[in-house]
Q: What sequence folds into this?
């Protein structure tokens, strides 16, 4: 199964990706996570990406595409993958389509997680991420009173780009650059929208029901 998750910042892409990828036994490839790992590792890629991420802008296409191409070429991605955060504009989508075509592959499905802006701001303001296992938590919805990950004991942190004004800019970038992907994939006839409001488990159930007809 080759799957893409699209949706505004805070829609729950990373949260749902953990469960969907594990249900389908495919690797979860989150471009935001790969960039953040490079930022904490102090790599050249991380230094470059950080200047864009801190503003809430997209990292330039050539850098992002090269990184995704390398990741998709790895062994574990040959029989399927779940992309979270890529593609993020129409030119990335065109490159992905052509790259997969060269490898004799096609995307099976693009899931669009649908939530409104008000919910996005609520979700991002309370988000905490585990520095050790990457698991995503929410202070209010998961009733997190300490900053320790209940899954692995690691320390939780708040993302630099979750400041209110950066969130607002990320939403604008989404509307301008990423939202056009919806009609791109409607035309390719592989887009399915999923209501991403309500409890996490219900969203996962809706997503799995949407995926089932596309499973080989
Ligand atoms: P990225 O890390 O992809 O950020 P994003 O798209 O803005 O999305 P988020 O990770 O903020 O939200 P999410 O949808 O994953 O929500 P989550 O599950 O965490 O990208 C960051 C940056 O990297 C970009 O700005 C850009 O600079 C760069 N970048 C990445 N990819 C790129 C690309 N392809 N090209 C160029 N640049 C790129 O959930 C949010 C919160 O809500 C959590 O606290 C969670 O616990 C909670 N929550 C989730 N679901 C629910 C629910 N159902 N009910 C209640 N709370 C919930
Ligand atoms: Mg995410």
A:
């Amino acid at each position: 199964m080759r799957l893409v998750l699209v949706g505004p910042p805070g829609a729950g892409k990373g949260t749902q990706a953990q469960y969907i990828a594990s249900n389908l036994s495919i690797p979860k490839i989150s471009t935001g996570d790969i960039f953040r790992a490079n930022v904490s590792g102090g790599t050249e890629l991380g230094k470059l990406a950080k200047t864009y991420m801190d503003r809430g802008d997209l990292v330039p296409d050539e850098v992002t595409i090269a990184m995704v191409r390398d990741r998709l070429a790895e062994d574990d991605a040959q029989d399927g993958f779940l992309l979270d955060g890529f593609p993020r504009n129409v030119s990335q989508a065109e490159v992905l389509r052509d790259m997969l075509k060269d490898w004799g592959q096609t995307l099976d499905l693009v899931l669009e997680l649908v939530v409104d802006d008000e919910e996005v701001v609520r979700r991002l303001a309370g988000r905490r991420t585990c520095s050790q296992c990457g698991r995503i938590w929410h202070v209010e919805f998961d009733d997190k009173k300490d900053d320790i990950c209940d899954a692995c004991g690691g320390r939780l942190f708040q993302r630099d780009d979750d400041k209110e004004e950066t969130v607002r800019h990320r939403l604008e970038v989404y509307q301008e650059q990423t939202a056009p992907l919806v009609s791109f994939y409607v035309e390719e006839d592989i887009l399915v929208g999923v209501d991403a409001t309500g409890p996490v488990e219900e969203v996962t159930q809706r997503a799995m029901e949407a995926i089932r007809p596309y499973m080989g």
